[in-house]
Amino acid sequence: MKRKLFSVALSLVLAGGVLAGCGSKENSSGASPAASASAGAANDLAGKKIALVMQFNTGTFSSQYVEGVKEQVEKLGGKVTVFVADTDLAKMSSNLDAAVNQKFDGILIDHGTAEALEAGVKKALDKKIPVVSFDSILSVPGVTSLEQGDQKMAEATLEQLAKDAGGKGNIVKIWVAGFAPMERRQLAYQAFQKKYPDIKEVAAFGTAQDPALDSQTQMEAILKKYPNKGDITAVWTAWDEFAKGASRAIQQAGRTEIKVYGIDLSDEDLQMLQDPKSPWVASSAVDPKDIGRVQVRYLYQKLHGDQTPDKVVLDPVYVSRDQLPKDKQVNTAQLSEYVKGWGGSQQGYTDWLKAAEKK
């Protein structure tokens, strides 16, 4: 009898030890059960297929935006496929349908219009595919829409133009309708015109097709129409591709008394901005790589089951030649050393996202 009781007691002790051992192994990281569950959910997000549906992929700003998207997705163990419509909205709509039909895990949208995208977006949501858009006029429930502070960007460059011009002069506007960010920037321009009636618009143009080349060609024609120094005070451009073309035409014509003010900024733009012979003197922008990174973070929040806002506004930064070093060239990755608020945005980050990146 004693031997039997001893055997039972020994069995209980051994069983308790095994259970305790298993428990200590599960909690060896020191993580709480909630943290472990969140980490497990984050691990489930590895290997996701993400579609990036773009209206256009023009210039270095767009290419750096795509780099930001890919960098953030790859950090989270996923893979990006890019669909580019070359400004053809019908093709963009078709590309969106293709992304849905190919059963991508999540969809990112860059530009586009509600008319072209709404039906495809609703189809994606019906199939439980989350969608996050950038600079698209979309108001579909369940979609998080990112935009830059477009009016703020336009106001910053226009106010500096007015200050440099002494509140009077003749200007050229380069802008194109039909794009959400352009339309928002145009609102700031209209307010600027009312505020500064002595600043006259003598010419306006712009196209999304070959924008840098077209802007250069059209600016060359305008310079011939206004050949004298003082005929044109400044050029305001609503997109960096426009600023590139206008700046090249002005510089080649030797008319660098004309100043150019832009919106958006890439590495190529920054080189032009730093050139003392370039008429391009200032721009207002958000780091294009940051835009891509932030957009991906909100998509992964949706994949994780988190609640996300309907609208996210990215804060722009004003960058002028005066802020930049004169003894060396810098790129957008180094710009934060000279311009406060540039790059390194933490928008859209969560603790579990940061933990998922480390894994």
From TrEMBL:
| Record-linked CDD domains | PBP1_methylthioribose_binding-like
Pfam families assigned to the protein according to its UniProt record, in alphabetical order: Peripla_BP_4 (PF13407)
Is Signal one of the keywords UniProt gives this record?
Answer: yes
Q: Would you name any one GO CC term?
A: outer membrane-bounded periplasmic space
| GO MF annotation list | carbohydrate binding
Q: What are the entry keywords?
A: Signal
Q: Where is the Periplasmic binding protein domain?
A: 50-306
Q: Where is the signal peptide?
A: 1-20
Q: Where in the cell is it found?
A: Cell envelope
Give the family this protein belongs to, as stated in its UniProt record.
Answer: Belongs to the bacterial solute-binding protein 2 family.
Query: Could you tell me what this protein is called?
Result: Sugar ABC transporter substrate-binding protein
Q: Could you tell me which species this protein originates from?
A: Paenibacillus whitsoniae
